[in-house]
Amino acid sequence: MATYEEDFHTSLKDPEKFWGAAAEDLKWFRKWDRVLDNDNPPFSKWFPGGELNTCYNCLDRHVEEGRGEQTALIYDSPMTGHVEKFTYQQLTEIVARFAGGLTSLGITKGDRVIIYMPMVPEAAIAMLACARIGAIHSVVFGGFAAKELATRIDDAKPVAMIAGSCGLEPGRIVEYKPLLDEAIEISSHKPDHCVILQRPEVTASLVEGRDVEWKELAGRSEPVDCVPVKATDPLYILYTSGTTGVPKGVVRDNGGHAVVLKWSMKHVYDIDPGEVFWAASDVGWVVGHSYIVYAPLLHGCTSILFEGKPVGTPDAGTFWRVIQDHGVKALFTAPTAFRAIKQQDPEGKLIGDYDISHFKTLFLAGERADPDTIVWAQDTLKVPVLDHWWQTETGWPMGANCSGYGIKPVKLGSPTLPVPGYDIRIIDEEDAVSEMPAGDIGVIAVKLPLPPGTLQTLWQNDEGFLKSYMEEIPGYYKTGDAGFVDEDGYLFIMARTDDIINVAGHRLSTGGMEEVLAGHKDVAECAVIGAKDSLKGQIPMGFVVLNAGVDRPEGDIVRELVALVREKIGPVAAFKEAMVVKRLPKTRSGKILRGIMRKIADGEEYRMPATIDDPEILAEITVALEQAGYPKS
Ligand code: COA
Ligand code: AMP
């Protein structure tokens, strides 16, 4: 195998040679005409002319190659006490039959299907079944409310929805069906069919003529074969937070995606076919798409689908139990999960109750990995702890310690080096052209063309794609992150440059929350910031100015605001705090100084902007935050 340095160099100098070789590891129905068509940048296309099927490469091919008896998927649910294993043979049959069910509903290549499911194997089965027939899936995270689901229905215009009757959260059952019905009620687009998985905990009532039970549909259907799709055809749309309340529909292709995900299993994660890989995330997030479902299966691994939390299901030893019971070689999770475990078991005593001697590497991503958490994990687990950096848009890591080439020295606070394929530059924010010298912070951009597997565009919104990512720094993809590269070429990701915050590894838009607060009848104006939190990394904090003449108790209004965000966006927003203030700090041109409010909340020093309208307001905000107990950590 080549070294990291050799591969990195080739991947940038001759991307066609590099990714063309990686593509040989997949089964194609028709070979590509060109590896890369970059005639119309930034709309570059990977493997045009090629035809394949992602589900075939995840399942059928392994059965044909003798992996049929190997476990493909393990569902481990401390929420229900259930563990279920599926071999490649079994999973292929189940997916083929369910795909037949979808076909019998008239769903066909290019149709959109929204999947709104908890962490049950049927979520992965539904995704793979869509891929099998060329339908484009869009998974919506279960923690989002009906309104968020409705926005996605109106954007994706699905012909069908696939949903579970309920999700299970510690201490509470979340009924999905009423949320689904409400979403369809408020959306303008109406899907023709809803396939409902009835879980034992809740039996949802069905709407006649529209809804069908999963079991009944699968029971009456015949298995269908994989449909060849173009490498450039969309595999899925995944909505992610942008700077406004309207989410962005990231479009992923079939060919480039399959090529890089398979490649990444060995080169980034050092996993071989037949080994067990566990991404403790949710299928509603990009990590779940890429590393619970697609990449491990493309590579012939065993993947774990875990329905539980790092703590409380039943305790902070649950991760070690899963690693022990299923022979997990590498775990991928968010630092927040480890902060939760560390909080409950500070000395990591519970690790001693399990045999995890086969466990080799811990990978962290989703938010900045704070040095304390990394050191704690290193000390207690005694394995390499590797931070890596990526986004929904890229679908796989941009910066990592690519362990398949041999692990590089770890620098705390850095996800290490750019992954082959990514030409990462730190650009001066002032002119959006010059590159920053080593050690200086700038905006992080990737020189085009992006490698395979990254976003193709936004769903039916090329203009939004260009505006959000491609226009500000011509010739580059703007990541939305700020950071620097040190003298050894190590990346350091410091902050977002926009209104996105990261709460317990979940990406959320403060703009979206502001839209909800502004909708309250008593609110004149508002701002939401992400304040530091020792467990979740950041938590949202709202500031509202009330309309003149409102004399209701402030506590009542705050409670209503908290409930409103939960109702409109969902519990995952974790919006629990808001305060009423007399005024918001602004520049003379009227821009709210959210960055400074965040610094005050976090107890950081800040410079008084020359353009501030009235410096006195900052003193008022400081007092209000101090009274509310900020800074918290
Ligand atoms: N369906 C319905 N509700 C959900 C949900 C789902 N799929 N996922 C989360 N929620 C709810 C939670 O129950 C919680 O509700 P509450 O306000 O009534 O308590 C709320 O959304 C906030 O959830 P979360 O931020 O996850 O907090 P938590 O207290 O439940 O758990 C952690 C905290 C750290 C244990 C948890 O966030 C975690 O395991 N994070 C791992 C990170 C991760 O998976 N990241 C994904 C990208 S890698
Ligand atoms: P998401 O699209 O939900 O995966 O969130 C992507 C964003 O999370 C990135 O743009 C970063 O701001 C942040 N992020 C992800 N991984 C890391 C990491 N390893 N270090 C720092 N920030 C990260």
What is the mean predicted local confidence, pLDDT? 96
Helix amount, in percent?
A: 25-40%
Ligands bound here? Answer: coenzyme A, adenosine monophosphate
Fold-level CATH name of the largest domain: Rossmann fold
Low-confidence stretches: none
Distance between the termini: 46 Å
How can the largest sheet be summarized?
7 strands, mixed
Total of DSSP H or I helical runs spanning 4+ residues: 18
Number of strands: 31
Return the CATH architecture of the largest domain: 3-Layer(aba) Sandwich
Q: What is the quaternary state of this protein?
A: single chain
* Class by alpha and beta content: alpha/beta
Task: Explain how this protein is built.
By secondary structure, the chain is of the alpha/beta class. The chain has two domains: 4-308 and 388-474, ANL, N-terminal domain (Rossmann fold); 498-627, GMP Synthetase, Chain A, domain 3 (2-Layer Sandwich). The strands form ten sheets. Strands 5-4-17-16-18-19-20 form a seven-stranded mixed sheet, sandwiched between helices. A five-stranded parallel sheet has the order 7-6-8-11-12, with helices on both faces. Strands 23-24-25-26 form a four-stranded antiparallel sheet. α3 (54-67) packs across α5 (121-133), α3 packs parallel to α10 (286-298) and α12 (335-344) packs across α13. The model has no long low-confidence stretch (mean pLDDT 96). The structure holds coenzyme A and adenosine monophosphate. Coenzyme A binds at residues 142-143, 167, 169, 174, 281-282, 285, 287, 309-311, 334, 336-337, 340, 366, 503-505, 536, 571-572, 574.
